[in-house]
Amino acid sequence: MREVGVSHCLVKPVTPSELLESLTHELGIETRRRGKPEIGIQQIKQTRPLRLLLSEDGRVNQIVATNLLEGRGHTVVVAADGQEAVTPFKSDQFDAIFMDIQMPELNGYEATAAIREHERKDGGHIPIIAMTANAMKGDREMCLGAGMDDYVSKPIDANVVFEKLVFFFGDD
């Protein structure tokens, strides 16, 4: 399974402790059972605190990403679908958007198109980073071709997420 990019495999029924162990390991979070991670997010450069819009319909993914980002001092507003992402974008100020692709109402491509259309009319440009389980060859290019600025595959790697933010916003 590692040859095709699977980092963890859980067997159903999954216990809460197995799920937590898998998530914390994948995110590089220290636990009492495991000790310090080999490469922790503490080693990634830190950006200034950012205001981020997370467009994600999966409740577990919302919790994981929000905790990860807020743990580094960022403010996160969650939108449960693409339409919910477009609405606050128009009325609120965000530094960047993390955009899931497969969502109800408007999918990530449609939401990105609506945001880019709004920017064409009113000016500005907000970085949109695809955050998706679509990790096949060509998916990254589809996201970029749809107007997104970057791409992160799920399950998210904390180091990659923070490296993307440093790329767009520099470090302290």
Textual characterization of the structure:
There is one protein chain. By secondary structure, this protein is α/β, with parallel strands linked by helices. It has two domains: 1-34, no CATH class; 45-169, Rossmann fold, CATH 3.40.50. It is 40% helix and 13% strand. The chain has six helices and five strands. Strands 2-1-3-4-5 form a five-stranded parallel β-sheet, with helices on both faces. β4, α5 and β5 (150-153) form a beta-alpha-beta unit. α3 (82-91) runs parallel beside α4 (108-122). The termini are far apart. Residues 34-42 have low confidence and may be disordered.
Helix/strand structural class: alpha/beta
CATH class of the largest domain: Alpha Beta
CATH topology grouping of the largest domain: Rossmann fold
Secondary-structure element order, N to C: HEHEHEHEHEH
Secondary structure layout:
Blueprint (H helix, E strand, L loop, with lengths): L15 H12 L23 E5 L3 H12 L4 E5 L2 H10 L4 E4 L8 H15 L5 E5 L6 H7 L4 E4 L4 H12 L3
Parallel strand pairs: 1-2, 1-3, 3-4, 4-5
The gist of it:
With 172 residues, this protein is an alpha/beta fold. 40% of the residues lie in helices and 13% in strands. The protein starts with 15 loop residues before the first helix and ends with a helix.
Tags for this entry?
single chain; 172 residues; alpha/beta; Rossmann fold; 2 domains; 6 helices; 40% helix
